[in-house]
Amino acid sequence: MNSFPIESTRWRDDLKERIRLEASVLRALIQWGMVESACEVCRGLKAHFEVAPEGDFGGSSRQRVSAQDKAFVRDLLQEAYLRTREIPRHRIIQERLHDGLLTGFEELALEVIRCYEEFSSKTGVQVEREKAA
Length: 133
What we know:
Blueprint: H1 9-32, H2 38-49, H3 67-84, H4 91-102, H5 106-132
Helix pairs in contact: 1-5, 2-3, 3-5
């Protein structure tokens, strides 16, 4: 009998997946030049999607992100950029962020959502395997 969560294989695998999720989201934000607000955006995403320790995504093992979730992500990215837009950046990054603002950060939002959908599908497969066993 496993008395500690760390002794559980499922718990360790879930922790690894959540770390991969956060790392992939942070990587996307940093590549876009949102270094100053990357952690804040991650906290907002985590709170919105309610990534639970048990591996649940948004309270269930859903595979798709709704239109409301996509709008939330775009709004969160816009707000983060607007708070930090006065910070000096390289010209290329500045142009990319400004273009992102004009398009509602659609491309970056899709990257972030893809990360959450991959996480959801992996945890959903793990849950299905455990139910089958």
